[in-house]
Every structure is written in C-alpha cells, then in structure tokens.
Amino acid sequence: MATPEEVNADMLAFWNGKGGDTWVARQDYTDITLSPVTDALLAFAAPRAGERVVDIGCGCGAPTLEFARAVAPSGRVAGLDISGPMLAEGKRRASAAGIANVDWRQADPATATLDEYDLLISAFGVMFFGDRVAAFSNMRRAAAPDARMALVCWRTLGENPWMEVPMTAAVQHLPPRPKPVPNAPGMFAFANPAHVTEVLTTAGWTPPRFEKLDMDLDIAAGLGLEEAVVQSTQIGAVNSWLRNQPAEVVSAVVDSLRETLAPYANHTSVRLPSAMWLISSAPA
Ligand SMILES: C[S@@+](CC[C@H](N)C(=O)[O-])C[C@H]1O[C@@H](n2cnc3c(N)ncnc32)[C@H](O)[C@@H]1O
Predict the structure, then answer these.
(1) CA of 58 to the centre of ligand 1 (A)
(2) Chain CA centroid to CA 144, Å
(3) What predicted TM-score, i.e. pTM, was given to this entire model?
(4) Whose CA is nearest to atom 26 of ligand 1?
(5) Helices in the chain by DSSP H: which ranges?
(6) All residues at 6 or more sequence positions from 90 whose CB lies less than 8 Å from its CB, including other chains
(7) pLDDT tens column, 98-133
C-alpha cells in the first residue's frame, strides 16, 4: 500500500496535470451534472451573510462561487486546492461573474496555516488526503470556537450506478485490476461512516451527523447520449483505467459505454442514480 507521502505526491501530479486539465476543460458540463448537489450542500451548510467560509478542494469553484454569493457582501470564502490549473479557472470564473469575495489559494490543507473560519465546506474535495487525520487536525486548529463543518462525499460504488454502470461496461475490455483497498484515498474514501467518524473524532471534531443524499444525475448534462459517453470516459475510474490503453481498447470501451447507457437516455438527458453523504460536524 502507498505511503501518505506517495499518495500526496501522486495527487499533486494528477490534479496539476491531466486530472486538473480535464476538470478545467469539462467544468461547464460537470457543473450542470452536479448543480443539484451544490444546491443540496448550500441548504445543508446554511451559510450566513458575513461568515468566513473555507472551501477545501474547491477546484474550479462551482460551490465556492455559490457560497461567496451567500455570505456577501461582508463575508469571504477562502478556496483552497492543490491544483494550480483548477484554481486559475475558478479565479477566471469569479471575475467573469463579478464575484470579488473569494481568496483563491494553492495550498495543502493538511499543512497550510489557515485563517480563522466560521464554516468549513467541501464538495468531494476531502477524500484524497494521504493522511486524513493530519489534514483534519490541521483544519481544526483554525476553526472558530462555534465553527461548523459541512461536507458532501460519495457513498459506496454499489450505491452509485452513475459510476458503476460505466465501469462495468468498460472493465470487460481491460486487463484485470487490483482489488480496491477499503477506505483508500480516492473517490469513495469517505463512504464508510464508521471510518469517517474515527478520522474526525481523532482529529478533534465532534462525532459527525450523516444525512443521505440520493438523486439521479444527468451525466449527459442535457446534451444527449454522446456527451454521457464522453463524460464517462473523462472523470472517475474509467478515465484512469483508459490512460495508456491502446486506441483499439479505448474504442471498444466507448462502443460498450454507448450501448450500455442508451437505455438510460431520455431525450437529451441520461439519468442514473447517485448516492452521497452530507456530513456535518463541529470542533469538539
Ligand atoms: C472532484 S474535484 C471537486 C472540485 C470542486 N469541489 C467541485 O465540486 O467542483 C476534487 C478536488 O480536490 C482537490 N484535491 C485533491 N487532493 C487535495 C488535497 N490534498 N488538498 C486539497 N485539495 C485536493 C483536487 O485538486 C480537485 O480540485
């Protein structure tokens, strides 16, 4: 198993390389697919005007900008991420939207000195830390005494057909994969509530509350079956599996994805079920 340092180095390379570039190129579409999730996180976190928010793993800033609007005019959001290209895109989008109360910061939340905050949020940005307890301990240090935390993270792969269906279509064309390590850093690292509870309470947070968020996601972003096929090859596990595969394998996977996703298509949408945790906690 990789050491925390190896995990961090891999994540830094991925999110500043191919992974970050892909997210930047596809953010408009991903935003459409995930906009109901941003709405749910906003309702769950209930930001108040004037609050100081920190958004961990803010990426290109889809939730960051909504929280910035919610705490304006006197509140601010610190958007933290390790990815330079994604932060640059977030900054560009904020300026295009006339949003000036976000501080975009390229830093590792596990080690960075953070300013005091009232609300810590993250949409799918806390599952990649090499050492989760160290990261949440560091973030805990900057929390105001009455601060709140609100996260959204994926539940298990089996509960997320929007990801599992494309993976099943792809896997038949690919060499055997190593078995996933439970709770390993990555998309599903926060799926297990017992594990999340242990991480957070060890890091100085109260036992978290978990609320299920279940919704169908339109992986076509309203653009039809071909967009669903492209999106399935560009994010998540299928994307990493296709890296370095010969063209004929990629083409066989694309054909299978098209065939497998076709029954889910309805006009320009391709909706599949997804399952997330909304997780809240506070400094212990
Ligand atoms: C799935 S994207 C989510 C981006 C954004 N929150 C959104 O909802 O659009 C995951 C983000 O986590 C960031 N990330 C990965 N590892 C990180 C780490 N150790 N510290 C901070 N951010 C990290 C990535 O660079 C990426 O921006």
Answers:
(1) 6
(2) 25
(3) 0.96
(4) 59
(5) 4-16, 18-45, 62-71, 84-96, 132-141, 161-171, 193-202, 225-234, 236-242, 247-261
(6) 58, 59, 60, 61, 64, 65, 79, 81, 102, 104
(7) 999 999 999 999 999 999 999 999 999 999 999 999
